[in-house]
């Protein structure tokens, strides 16, 4: 399974999964049609599945047109999003499995950004190789999603599931927000040497217009304040030792940043 990152809209990423042997593809959160169809044409692949993480328009905007072009494809999304995902045929919940190519993905229920948000985790086929996480707007490189429909407690629980994945899991998050996320992170975790180094690297990468996605779980655990709510320095920064309250105060600060 090969993964292609397709820029869309102003700062979205669409992810195309490709099986070159079977000449089939699946797409995660198609915001726009053209990047998907152009890549499919260049690969000579048939689209067989859409994997949606949640119902926001910048994640499902191309569903209907892709269904029109590839009427046999199957649209997967969370059971809690029933009626909100265009063309949805499969209604997934925690622990369900999806198959693409030679990989089996596990469904994680990760509400917080929205009430029905799910993530797709594909464990590695070979020990030591990276797994693949498609987490929509729950976890970002250096940050996390805003709480539009969920609570801080739900988001802490959701992020805990992702934090517990192997360190070598690649994070295919849906937006290029990394630089701004890290610019906020340094304001609440300024003594973090790993964060200082990462911010410098990301500044340099973005100055060259390079993408910062995917990230890795191990990197996020060291530098992302929204996976570090139990660290004393961050608790001190927001004057709370309660994990949920610490997260909520960090999220509140980020919302005003």
Question: What attributes characterize this protein structure?
Answer:
six-stranded mixed β-sheet; about 35% helix; Metallo-beta-lactamase, Chain A; 2 domains; alpha/beta
Description of the molecule:
This protein has 257 residues and is α/β, with parallel strands linked by helices. It has 2 domains: 2-172, 4-Layer Sandwich (Metallo-beta-lactamase, Chain A), CATH 3.60.15; 178-256, no CATH class. It is 33% helix and 25% strand. It is built from 9 helices and 14 strands. It has helices spanning 34-43, 57-60, 63-69, 152-163, 178-188, 193-207, 217-223, 232-238, 243-255, and strands at 2-8, 12-19, 24-28, 46-51, 74-78, 88-92, 97-100, 103-109, 118-122, 132-134, 139-140, 143-144, 170-172, 215-216. It has a 6-stranded mixed beta sheet, covered by helices on one side. A 6-stranded mixed beta sheet has the order 7-8-9-10-13-14. Strand 8 and strand 9 (118-122) form a beta hairpin. The longest helix has 15 residues, at 193-207. The protein is globular. The termini are far apart. The mean pLDDT is 96.
Brief overview, please?
This protein has 257 residues and is an alpha/beta fold.
